[in-house]
Amino acid sequence: MAQTELDIGQDLREAIELYFEALYMCDVDLLDRVFHPASSLFDADAGAIFVDPITHYRQTIAERASPASLGQVRQDEILLVDHLSDNAALAKVRLRIHQNVFVDHLCYARSGGCWRIVAKLWHLEGTIKDLPSIDLKS
User: Fold this and answer.
1) CA distance 86 to 131
2) Closest CA relative to residue 122, chosen from 138, 109, 137, 107
3) Dist CA 87 CA 97 (whole Å)
4) Bridge partners of 127?
5) What are the per-10-residue average pLDDT scores of the chain (138 residues)?
6) b/e map 99-112, b = 16+ CB within 10 Å
7) Alpha-carbon distance 70 to 98, whole Å?
8) 3-127: CATH architecture
9) Any idea of the CA torsion for 95, 39, 111, 137, to the nearest 10 degrees?
């Protein structure tokens, strides 16, 4: 489903776009705006739960060469948004970072009119080479 077909509020859409831009640019200031300072990231691809506190993830992003700096076209899409309440939502997104394609579940909470990610569960779907049928929006 294309982003324009999803019925989500403009403010949540902007928060999701901020997430995409933060990772594309490897911009920790943008990352700080979209992630709650107490948030953590989770992965279970290896069969065990891996937890990465936002402070560590922020450092990883700061040290990474950004896809933008390498001339990669930004490719990402919002797959689904489910509202738990007026102030809580889950966004399922797909994005490309270098040669990797990730699917993320982003748990957003709104406080003071601002949507922030309070938890992220991510999955490495594959690589661009492994997944030629993926048509990420650019």
Assistant:
1) 36
2) 107
3) 29
4) 100
5) 57 97 98 97 94 96 96 94 95 95 97 96 90 64
6) eebbebbbbbbbee
7) 9
8) Roll (3.10)
9) 0
